UniProtKB/TrEMBL annotation:
It comes from Paenibacillus radicis. Pfam families: GFO_IDH_MocA (PF01408), GFO_IDH_MocA_C3 (PF22725). Gene3D superfamilies: Dihydrodipicolinate Reductase, domain 2, NAD(P)-binding Rossmann-like Domain. Residues 11-121 form the Gfo/Idh/MocA-like oxidoreductase N-terminal domain. It comes from the Bacteria. Residues 132-252 form the GFO/IDH/MocA-like oxidoreductase domain. Transmembrane segments: none annotated. This is Gfo/Idh/MocA family oxidoreductase.
Amino acid sequence: MTKVKIGMISFAHSHANSYLQELLVMPEVEIVGIADEERARVEAVTGNHGIAYYEDYHALLAADLDAVIICSENVHHARITMDAANAGKHVLCEKPLGITVSEMRSMIETCERNQVQLMTAFPCRYLPAVIEAKQAIDRGEIGSIIAVKGTNRGTMPGRWFIDPVLSGGGAILDHTVHVMDLMRWIVRSEPATVYAESGKLFHDIPVEDAGMVHIQFDSGVVGVIDTSWSRSKSFPFWGDVTMEIIGTEGVISIDAFAQKNEIYEDDKLKAQWSYWGDRMDSYLVQAFVQSIAEGHTVPITGEDGLQATAVALAAYESMKRKDTIAISELLEA
């Protein structure tokens, strides 16, 4: 078996740990190395699994590998992606793809020029509830879609996520993109206009921790996303991804993380949740590896990442101007 050789760049985002666990159990994958300028972030995983450590990701890119998975701070996504593409490596990049439209365009163009794949990490597409809902909608079971209401409410992550210099934004940028990608995928229409409101309602931090993002699609469908870091430390689970899709002939409600057990223990004094269902990160990583191995286009492209992130960026512009923003204004600038 010819193995797909993969390197990982940065464990700044906690999703890197999940992706690593999935790679470790894939017989068709060889993990060449992990690069992170902060050795303490990866020392345990490199030591426990005997994976080569690189302080400088450029040295990892010079090694014999096919692809990289990037989980750095948001502000570094574009630079690392373009360096990887110029080195001839395929890329799976953590969301949001970038923090400006221009840099995301450059990421896509650099990958295309170097004939490498760029995939955006939107694992929610692989959740069973989401897949079943999309199939039902595609079969016409609720008629024509009129409106979609979504939520992505989580725990405030702290660290670099609340430093706008490294993150590019707060809860709106962090939590709009997952649900926005699902809306685009299910509605099969591009967002046309955005109006948003935000606030610091739950934490004293430098960025917003709550927002409401309103979208109108080219097709006329309207959507709204409740995006927040509103879950307290005592909340039994980190957050949610939900959608209510309203059609002319019915409604579909999605609780994307509903595959869970609720556990009550006297010594813990609060409910604990554990999963019994499918692992969305597993399907995401498998799809990336399979696309590289078989030479076909990745299922969630850089363009998908750009379009979803552009809505979050338009939300910030809407709040700045206190007005509705046309997405085309950002994309054509």
